Amino acid sequence: MSEISPCPNCQSTYAYPTGVFLMCSECGHEWNPEEVEDAERLDVKDVNGKVLKDGDSVVVVKNLPVKGALKPIKAGTKVKNIRLTEGDHNIDCKIDGFSSMALKSEFVKKA
Questions:
Q1: Domains present along the chain, CATH in parentheses
Q2: Whole-number Å distance between alpha carbons of 94 and 99
């Protein structure tokens, strides 16, 4: 039997299999271990070199112009619950007043 990975939500080692998924007995989080391994392979770092992961909150470090918008995203804007993706714009997120968008990790710092 393979070793069970810790919970990606709370890092608890008390997880158990529920068919294809794993479930944490401490926080109740359920995840697919194959998807977590793929997400861990993404090495996305912020402007200060800190490693980012899915669900983190970040702060924009400079004004970012948005194509088609009247105003830029201001420096200091906090963005919650990010998703990491492959490619040039490696952060998918929702920003209040701007809807969904993709950001480059070089313009954010971990909150």
A1: 1-41 (2.20.25.10), 43-110 (2.30.30.40)
A2: 5
